[in-house]
Amino acid sequence: MKIGYAHVSTCDQNLELQLDALTQAGCETIFQEKVSRATKARPELDKLLASLR
């Protein structure tokens, strides 16, 4: 099972290119978030890592 993670750091940026690439790569589950670089918390990345354990 392939799992993907798409991230952009501003609300003005778009996840679509990343999501398309991850889908084409065969990812069945894709975690995505829009979080500022100033913010250290990345809840979707934490969920992804927890799912791998």
UniProtKB/TrEMBL annotation:
<protein>
    <submittedName>
        <fullName>Resolvase, N terminal domain</fullName>
    </submittedName>
</protein>
<dbReference type="Pfam" id="PF00239">
    <property type="entry name" value="Resolvase"/>
</dbReference>
<feature type="domain" description="Resolvase/invertase-type recombinase catalytic">
    <location>
        <begin position="1"/>
        <end position="53"/>
    </location>
</feature>
<dbReference type="GO" id="GO:0000150">
    <property type="term" value="F:DNA strand exchange activity"/>
</dbReference>
<dbReference type="InterPro" id="IPR036162">
    <property type="entry name" value="Resolvase-like_N_sf"/>
</dbReference>
<dbReference type="GO" id="GO:0003677">
    <property type="term" value="F:DNA binding"/>
</dbReference>
<dbReference type="InterPro" id="IPR006119">
    <property type="entry name" value="Resolv_N"/>
</dbReference>
